[in-house]
Amino acid sequence: MIWLVAVVCAVLTGVLVAPADRLVWVSLSLAGCTILTLAAQLSTGQKEGYVHRVTLSLVGAVLVLGAATGLFALIGLG
């Protein structure tokens, strides 16, 4: 679920934000994904595997937003 949120944030950032401000919005997207991850995992009430689930969600979000940042950089070079 968090990876999907990261993809949506990346697409919206690419479409709606000026190129000069994209890095700021990607950072804000990662912060939002972090808060959503912690809220989602705490709401389940499951202790076992908490660290693994949070790590998996955040690593996925970082990879998605990192790929988006790389794509934005390539588009900006052209």
Mean pLDDT: 94
Low-confidence stretches: none
Separate helix tally: 3
Strand content: under 5%
Number of strands: 0
Counting helices, strands and paired strands, the structural category is mainly alpha
Q: What gap, in angstroms, lies between the N and C termini? A: 33 Å
Helix content: over 70%
Shape: elongated
Largest sheet, in brief, is: none
Q: Please state the CA-atom Rg, rounded to the nearest Å.
A: 14 Å
**Secondary-structure element string:** HHH
Write up this protein.
The protein is an all-alpha fold and 78 residues long. Helices cover 85% and strands 0% of the residues. The protein has three helices and no strands. Helix 1 (2-16) runs parallel beside helix 3 (50-77). The longest helix has 28 residues, at 50-77. It starts with a helix and ends with a helix. The model has no long low-confidence stretch (mean pLDDT 94).
Main attributes?
78 residues, mainly alpha, 85% helix, elongated
